[in-house]
Design goal:
mainly alpha; 7 helices
């Protein structure tokens, strides 16, 4: 099996039907929408977000807010689409760990002690289950069948 085939299997494996596929689908949509909403706020209420990031003691808070906003909007959109689900979930899990540590534990902000851990759990679920049903991962990675390639038969 080539490296590309292995990557394709990794990115698109997991349940395609049934309750686990439905759970992954719902997790992708809900978490993705929340990430998009919080990411958009980084741009629409930029000054307020910069003030928060200053309180966290983060370097270059203005640039940091823009960077996190981009990560959250793009990551959320990838989750909603079911495209590069596992890599997006990994990045968003890191985002949530940062939120929990910096604003949750550091300043006791309720959203970072409630919603962020819930989103972290959903990201771990997506890392485990994969994209679930109705995901672009399978169509883009293997458009002919919508499923990952089978390993080649071993020579006899």
């Amino acid at each position: 099996m080539t490296m590309r085939d292995r990557l394709t299997v990794l990115l698109s494996s997991g349940p395609r039907t049934g309750p686990l596929a439905a759970a992954a689908f719902v997790a992708r949509l809900v978490a993705g929408a929340i990430f998009i909403a919080f990411g958009v706020v980084k741009f629409t209420r930029h000054a307020s977000e910069v003030a928060s990031f200053q309180a966290y003691g983060l370097p270059a808070p203005d640039a940091f807010v823009y960077a996190i906003g981009i990560v959250e909007v793009v990551g959320g959109a990838l989750l909603v689409a079911g495209l590069l689900t596992r890599p997006a979930a990994l990045v968003m899990a890191g985002d949530m760990v940062g939120a929990i540590v910096v604003s949750g534990i550091g300043l006791g902000e309720p959203v970072s002690l409630t919603l962020a851990p819930a989103l972290l759990i959903l990201m771990v679920l997506l890392l485990w289950l994969g994209p679930g049903s109705a995901a672009l991962d399978r169509l883009v990675l293997n458009p002919s069948r919508g499923a990952p390639p089978r390993p080649p038969a071993s020579p006899a």
